[in-house]
Amino acid sequence: MIKGAITGLGKMGLSHAAIVGVHAKVDMVAVCDTSSLVLNAFNKFSKVNTYTDHQKMIDVEKPDFVVIATPTKFHFPMVKYALDNGVHVFCEKPFTLTAEEGKELTDLAVKNGLVNQIGFHNHFIGTFRELKRLLHENVLGELVHFSGEAYGPVVTKEKGSTWRSNSAEGGGCLYDYASHVINLIQEIIGRPEKIQGTLLKSIYSKGVEDAVFSLLKLKGGLSGTLLVNWSDETFRKMSTSITVQGKNGKIVCDATEIKIYLKKAVPSENLEKGWTIKYITDFAIPVDFYLRGEEYSAQIDHFVDCVEQSRQSEYNSFEQAMYTDSVIEMILEDAKK
Question: What are the Gfo/Idh/MocA-like oxidoreductase N-terminal domain coordinates in residue numbering (predicted)?
Fold first, then answer.
């Protein structure tokens, strides 16, 4: 059995703990948080050892891997300590507060030969994987435009501040919401190299943006838009979509379906002229434990497999997340113009 541990028991940390705790290949030996309320619950209802100190947990338990799901400002020191002590790391997004910090952690993980993965869970949703595959097969021909969008009801009224309302701690719509979309664009379509026309809008929050609108230019010249708003209460929960237009048609993809419009049929893909709609049920990744969506278990399953096989993940590596952080920095710089 692989020994696993969790640091940070907020919403995402508890979700990861539930998945790791029942994983057939993992013995979850410890959890760490500063909340006595949460730790008391683990003490009462589980046999997992509890800690309030991340470093002490690593030193005493010596886990094979740790899942870090703390606020972003703690990621750098916690990930670094784990890597320095030979522990594989799954870390929640966004990776770090600066691309420079991300570069240092990426280099350290590679140097120590440790598996590293970031929680950009959309890459474990089958429809987005199908979009990437179809673009690779060139079904749209020459690409002419793309749009990455995300909307949700995170901040729908003025309220008191938390770390999510402090950009210095990784708060704000750009870090929390838009990072998902930027990462999807860079890994499915191409890496942004230039940013123009950025608007960061505060709607209810003070000190951080609630909406991000920006023009992204990719390597090779393709351009498209980033449209993200976490103050849109017309959505029940976060909704993320990617639209790609080419000279042979258009694909609209989200977490539930992929809609393909073609001017000319592509027989090799069994795609006819006109609209074809396929649903997530055709592409969902099978998992043994379902919680919130198969993608959350699938990303942990993949990480555990990589640890077991001592191979680096092709999905959501530190290097990929570091690039997403560098695009965030480019957007922030462009917004100052």
Answer: 3-120
Instruction: Judge whether 95 lies within some domain.
Output: yes
Q: Which residues of 175-192 are buried (b: 16+ CB within 10 A; e: fewer)?
A: bbbbbbbbbbbbbbbbbb
Strands (E), the chain: 2-7, 26-32, 49-51, 65-68, 88-91, 116-118, 143-151, 192-201, 211-218, 223-229, 239-246, 249-254, 257-262, 274-279
DSSP 125: S
Q: Looking at the domain assignment, is residue 33 inside a domain? A: yes
Question: Smallest Cα–Cα separation from 324: which of 207, 167, 176?
Answer: 176
Same domain? 134 vs 249: yes
DSSP sequence for 161-192: --GGG-GGGT-SHIIIIIHHHHHHHHHHT--E
106 and 148 fall within a common domain: no
Q: How many domains does the chain have?
A: 2
Per-residue pLDDT reduced to its tens digit, 87-126: 999 999 999 999 999 999 999 999 999 999 999 999 999 9
User: Which range of residues forms the domain containing residue 178?
Assistant: 126-282
Q: Evaluate if pTM is beyond 0.85.
A: yes
